[in-house]
Each structure stands twice: as C-alpha cells, then as structure tokens.
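Q: Two folds, back to back.
A: First:
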Amino acid sequence: MSIAFFTNFTPFVSFNCRANLKSEPLKKRIVSFKKDRKSLKLGLSNDKNSESKPSSNINLLIQSNEDERDKMFDTILQELSAIQQNAPRKVAILGTRHFSYLHQQVVELLTYANLLVGNHVFTSGGAGNGTNAAVIRGALRAEKPDFLTVVLPQSLKKQPPDVREILEKVQNIVEMTENDDLSLDVASRLCNSEIIDRCDHLITFAFHDSDVVLDASKEAKALNKLVTLLYLD
C-alpha cells in the first residue's frame, strides 16, 4: 500500500524533523510508536500459518513497503515540526471510515502531538476502526480534555456502539440532532462544513474514492484554510 501526501502548507523546517521535536513526551511517544510498528511486523511474520503462501506474500509486502512507510512517517514528522512552530491552532482531522491498524497509529500520534503543543483538535464520529475514532483515542491519551471537540453529524444515539463507548470519555461533544432525519452522507457533509468553519487547518486521510472526505478538503481550500491531504491508495 502506498501513501501520497499533498498539502498547501509549505513551511517545513527540515526533512530530519526528529531533531526539531522539542517535547520529550512527544519523543517518547514516537519511540513507542516505532516499537508498535516492529511488533506489528513481527506478529505477522510469526503467525502460526506463516508457512502458507498467503502469509508469505503478506510478509514480502511488508518488507517491500518498509521504505514507503518510512517516508510516510518522515512526512508525518515534518507535519509535527510545523505544528510546533505554528501552535496554538485550531486543527481538524477527518478521514475515511476504513482504516488499517498502522494508519490508526499514525493518526493517534498526530493527534496526540497536536494536543501536546496546545492545538485544539476537532473531529467527528464514525466507525470504531476509522480515522475519527483514532483521532479521539490519540486525543484522550494526551489527557487534555478541553482541547478536543467532537462534532457528530447526528445524535449521539446514532453512533455505533463501540464509538459511543469512546465518546463517553469526551468532554466536548456537539450533536447535530437537526440532521437525524437526513441520510448519513448528507449529515456527514453538513457536519464537515461545521467543523471546517471552526478550524484553521484541516488534515484529511482519504482514498481516491472517499468522496465525502475529498469534498471537505476542497471546501476548506475554497475557504482559504490550510489543508493537508494524505491519500491512502
């Protein structure tokens, strides 16, 4: 799986952003994140069915994509470096409902870093293994409840059970109950517009067919917001 990065946010300080991370807790989080990556790879490699052809293909794919993943992480670290220089900001992080474990970890790290430097993060609801749920988990780990706002496209009761469980720990929740009679697609678009109005910088994770997320990115650009778009395919 490849990942492409597009942004209209250009003032990156340096490619080796590890040296620019001033916050010690953030450094520790990145180290922990890298360990998670290694354990994920080892876990797949040591699977009891690793001798089968499908598992071998998976392992080869992981190894062959190692360089691509490293580039992705460097890109994220560049974003973190820029975040520190421009804090505090109002940052919205939105994305697809279908997300791999690895990408969930990336989003949690990015969200954690935003809160750590004093940025207020906005996101929405959705699937428990999606982008927005990963944002919420990352924000909760930062232990700064005042710096997270979750805007739901409809009432809280319309969220999946696993997401409602996470949302019980969130202090600032905005329910757009007026959208309960609308389709989720329409309600999500209205919700994204509300979130865009509240933020200075929009970060989105999307596939090329993630129409709702891509439309949110276009809307934010039209409003002269800073937009960082990460493609997952």
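A: Second:
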Amino acid sequence: KSDGEGGVHVEASVAAIADDNGLAIAGLRPDEVVIPSLLMTEPERDLVLKYVHSSSRFLEWGSGATTRHFGVDVGVSRILSIEHQPEQCRKTRNILHSNTPPGSSAPTELQLASLDNASIVYFAESEAALVCVPIAETSTRWNDRHHAESYNAYRAFVDALEDLPESVGRQIKLQRGSSAISEQFDVALVHGQARVACALRAFRWLTPSGVLIVPDFETHRSQYRTILKFYTREA
C-alpha cells in the first residue's frame, strides 16, 4: 500500500518499507559524541516513527544514525544493533554509551575469537547491545548489497545472532530456546549489506505483529521480491 510519499507499507509479521538516500555518520573525536545525520526526508522518517515507540524493542542490521534517531532519541525499551564495519562499530558504541544513565556500571564487553573475532558491548541499564562482526568490504558498489549472492560474503554479519554461543546470548538477554529463537523484537530495521538475507533472518526474531523496515524497497523491488514471500503487505 503506497503511503503517498514514495514509501510502501508492509505488515505482517510485518514490514514497513520506506525509501531513503543512505545514512551519513559524522566523524568522532575521542572526547565527544557527534550526533549523526539521518539522511531521510521527513515523510520517510515519519513512516519509521509510526512504528517505533518508547515501548518498542528495536533490532537493526547496520547502525549509526538510525541507532541514534530511532533507538536512543525515541527512547525505545531495548536496542540491539549488528554492525560489520569496525569504524562504524566505534561510533555506534559511543552513541550507546552516551545514552547510559549517570552512575551506570561499566558495560559488559566480550571478544569472541572463535566467532570471526566478533565483539559485543552490552549496556545493562539502558538495555542496549552492539554486536560487531568485522568483515572486509568486497565491493564499494551500492547495488551489490541488494543481491542474494551477498549473503556468502556477509554470512557472519547476517547470522550474527544465531551464531552467538548460548552463554553469550544469556549475558545480553537473548532468549534462546532449544528449537527456536523468536518473538523478542517489535521492530527490525535492515539497512546495511545483504539486505534480503538479513530481512529473512529477522523473521524469526520479530513478534507476530512485528515490523520490518527495508530502505530502498521500491528502487530495488526486483531484488527484494523474495522478502514478500515471508512478509504480508498491509491492506
């Protein structure tokens, strides 16, 4: 269903799909946190905010400006960000750290050499976690991130939550049953690499009334059509 502003709503286990122009993150000096710029039009931003509320549990593949604007600024109840660019991880960590209440205990930091040298930072008081899985970029072409083949290059990023050891999952309060991982997040935003694969991974983490947000859906509809086999459009 068109929203009249260039976006398409999908509901479901649900998806709300909106175009954007990409995200730009300002540089950080060691002694400050710079608020990143969200490069979306007001209608696009408002479309996302229609689904993200203070009670939302927010999951995202790709981090930075969206972490700040839709996670920290909205004051969601939980943030879980997955990132594969080391520099972006550093910036997002600072964003999450700036959101911790005064006097908070130090975040839990874990290094997982057995999992592609992934690292995890967990801020208990603000219920925020950042999972970093460093991956060397295989291409600088924007369109590459929309193709199904990109899963092979970014598998560790896509499957980061499934691959976490169960003991680590418990430390960051991921509920992992014996046969399924599900119904823990209300909103999932997929705006990094391997978007189709990330969107399909998000399905089992969303509540039945959850929302998936995929930027650039209309621009790359032919590459994204697989997503609609698992998510139903809003009537």
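Q: And?
A: The longest helix spans residues 86-98.
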